[in-house]
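Q: Sequence in, structure out?
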Amino acid sequence: MRLFEGTQFDIPPTCDRCGKLEKECRCPPLAKPGIPADQQTAQLSLEKRKRGKLVTVVRGLADDASLVPLLAKLKSSCGAGGTLNDGVLELQGDHVARIKAMLLTDGYRVSR
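A: Exactly. Output:
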């Protein structure tokens, strides 16, 4: 249900490409831009932060929407917390071997 549905202010959604109502639009879906995993090289490193905490860092991946689900998958498989900062994945702890194996099975190239 739209916000103003059934009132004089109701403006049904239209397609940006053809201008028809979304219900009547027959435009093909837009291809999702992105670089395939087999064309990306992940650079793994282990960094020591303040108070001696270890952080596994993954750099070199394309900064697109696929990083968020990848981070969630890595965090759940490692059982650790992590974050995404400026296209760099950071996971708490020393998980280099486990992350390397997971990235290789997903099709990424890995350098260490």
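Residues 4 and 101 are 51 Å apart (CA to CA).
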